[in-house]
């Protein structure tokens, strides 16, 4: 009976480590998602500002330490592409997050069942 409990405890420890890793992955996903959300907001703001400009307005792009003149239409297209890319990344991150959360819930259930089984075995051993 003692070896069964030890095996279950090893299995529990393994599943708990897996759960811990999933929780770290979820936290990392949230950090990356937050970064992209901020970038999306900044780019949408830039797009609004570009839309306010006249067709012949001067637009400059910062490349390293230098401001380079850029065509308004080109700047507008670049910002729109960036917004599309960031939006696609956010959708991908959301799908990944959903998958990770499903796995996390599954692991939590498995850990809980193992804990209950160990407790019932130990309670049965204490009575005997």
From TrEMBL:
InterPro entries from the UniProt entry: PFD_beta-like (IPR002777), Prefoldin (IPR009053)
PANTHER family noted in UniProt: PREFOLDIN SUBUNIT 6
Molecular functions per Gene Ontology: protein-folding chaperone binding; unfolded protein binding
Gene3D superfamilies, alphabetized: 1.10.287.370
Keyword terms of this UniProt record: Chaperone, Coiled coil
Plastid is among the record's keywords: no
Protein family per UniProt: Belongs to the prefoldin subunit beta family.
Biological processes annotated in GO: chaperone-mediated protein complex assembly; protein folding; response to cold
SUPFAM superfamilies: Prefoldin
Keyword Coiled coil applies: yes
Coiled coil: 83-117
GO cellular component: cytoplasm; prefoldin complex
Residues spanning the signal sequence: none
Official protein name in the record: Prefoldin_2 domain-containing protein
Any one Pfam family match given in the protein's UniProt record, by short name: Prefoldin_2
Entry superkingdom: Eukaryota
């Amino acid at each position: 009976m003692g070896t069964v409990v030890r095996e279950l405890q090893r299995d529990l420890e393994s599943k708990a480590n897996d759960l811990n890793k999933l929780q770290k992955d979820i936290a990392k996903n949230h950090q990356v998602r937050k970064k992209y959300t901020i970038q999306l907001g900044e780019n949408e703001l830039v797009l609004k500002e570009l839309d306010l400009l006249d067709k012949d307005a001067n637009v400059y792009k910062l490349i390293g330490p230098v401001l380079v003149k850029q065509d308004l239409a080109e700047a507008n297209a670049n910002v729109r592409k960036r917004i599309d890319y960031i939006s696609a990344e956010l959708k991908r991150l959301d799908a990944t997050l959903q998958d990770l959360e499903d796995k996390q819930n599954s692991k939590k259930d498995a850990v809980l069942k193992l804990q209950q089984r160990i407790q019932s075995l130990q309670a049965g051993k204490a009575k005997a």
